[in-house]
Write a structure and sequence with these properties.
With about 375 residues, the chain is of the alpha/beta class. The protein folds into 2 domains: about 150 residues, FAD/NAD(P)-binding domain (3-Layer(bba) Sandwich); about 190 residues, FAD/NAD(P)-binding domain (3-Layer(bba) Sandwich). About 30% of the residues lie in helices and about 20% in strands. The chain contains 11 helices and 20 strands. The strands form 7 sheets. Strands 8-18-9-10-14 form a 5-stranded parallel β-sheet, covered by helices on one side. Helix 5 packs across helix 7. The longest helix is centred in the middle third of the chain and has 18 residues. This is Indole-3-pyruvate monooxygenase YUCCA11. Keywords: Monooxygenase, Oxidoreductase.
Length: about 375
């Protein structure tokens, strides 16, 4: 829209394939009004929680309607920065039919928009190579299995499908997903107003509001929280009691928006093993640091991701990634580190997404307004 010439490259066959290829039951845990795109919002009849394939179709239509310059089935094979000329030399390979075309470009800027996470985060354990047929990652998971490592929205989704154990390695911030009534959507604040409210708030004020919201959430969900604790599920209330959003803002994980797994844990249908590191991956299961063993036909590691910087190292190489700063979390000024800011390398930028969050419903809007007036 700013008339800046650009090219988007995507290694998948179609736009949205990185969503289509996920596990079948994947549905977004945040409601649709958190996810509106610039220029073209989701239609008014859109489901509150979007299924993965429907989201993929929207992305593909979005690129077509806005006439975005996107090349699919394209991989970057090399990228070198010329400090004197202040531009990159980038080589890409694009598959068209049965042919592979090689092209070279000289852009002034490269934007890594691969999501705010980096390489897969595997717990350091012995036995990976000898047990390669036993475990998979959440990215490659397709059908129900038996044992799960980790706890977050994706791992709990999979647990509902047929897991028997969740091994939780740290404290989890729980939040129940309340399904809103469709007529209330007409009362939501305009997206631009919601953005302005969120991004204009000083970070300490926003955190104070979230501490109040988290306290109300804990009280509202007390019965579920007590049931989870009794089942051996260790919980926390987020950084300084600021709840889910600040846990996401500061570490990008460690929370669960409940879509049904919690009650299965409370009822004993899904078992919990928490606080033990994996010592070794065995051909038929796991050996934990306390000496206990867990037999399993298959193990899914839903243990999250490392910093987005690690993905840059994988794509561009260690020399280029060396001066890059860590991404995500807050700096000393309360701003997100590196995201949409200078990365440490000239002509290179990180961009990722955060859900829209502020005044999305009229009741929330009025509640927050009262807090602000009081402040």
């Amino acid at each position: 829209m700013l008339k800046v010439e650009s090219l988007v490259i995507d290694r998948e066959t179609r736009i949205g394939d990185n969503w289509r290829q996920r596990y079948k039951q994947l549905i977004l845990h945040d409601p649709v009004w958190f996810d509106h795109m610039p220029y073209i919002q989701f239609p008014s009849h859109w489901p509150v929680f979007t299924p993965k394939d429907k989201l993929a179709e929207f992305f593909e239509a979005y690129a077509m309607l806005l006439e975005l310059n996107v090349w699919t089935q394209t991989n970057m094979t090399s990228a070198k920065w010329d400090a004197g000329k202040q531009y990159w030399t980038v080589t890409v390979e694009r598959k068209t039919g049965d042919k592979i075309e090689t092209r070279t470009f000289h852009p002034r800027h490269i934007i890594q928009a691969t999501g705010h996470s980096g390489k897969k985060n595997f717990p350091p354990s012995r036995g990976w190579k000898t047990s390669a047929d036993v475990y998979v990652t959440v990215q490659s998971f397709r059908e129900p299995t038996l044992t799960l490592q980790g706890n977050a929205p994706s791992s709990s989704d999979l647990a509902i499908q047929g897991m028997t154990i969740i091994d939780v390695r740290g404290l989890v911030r729980f939040h129940r997903r309340h399904r809103p009534i469709r007529p209330l959507l007409r009362r939501q604040a305009p997206v631009d107003d919601a953005d302005l409210i969120l991004w204009s708030l000083p970070r300490p004020v926003h955190k104070a509001l979230q501490q109040q919201a988290a306290a109300l959430s804990i009280e509202n969900d007390r019965a579920t929280l007590e049931g989870l604790t009794k089942a051996g599920f260790k919980l926390d209330s987020g950084p300084d009691g600021a709840g889910l959003f600040f846990k996401y803002f500061q570490r990008g994980g460690g929370y669960y928006i409940d879509v049904g797994c919690s009650q299965l844990i409370i009822d004993g249908k899904i078992k919990i093993k928490q606080g033990q590191e994996i010592a070794e991956v065995l051909p038929n299961g796991l050996l934990f640091a306390d000496g206990s063993r867990l037999e399993a036909d298959e193990i899914v590691f839903a243990t999250g991701y490392k910093n987005m910087r690690t993905q840059a190292e994988e794509i561009f190489g260690p020399e280029m990634a060396a001066p890059l700063k860590d991404v995500w979390g807050f700096d000393e000024e309360g701003e997100w580190r590196t995201m949409w800011r200078r990365s440490g390398h000239p002509g290179f930028w990180f961009m990722g997404a955060t859900s829209r969050f502020a005044g999305t419903m009229a009741d929330t809007w009025r509640c927050r307004s009262r807090h602000w007036r009081k402040a």
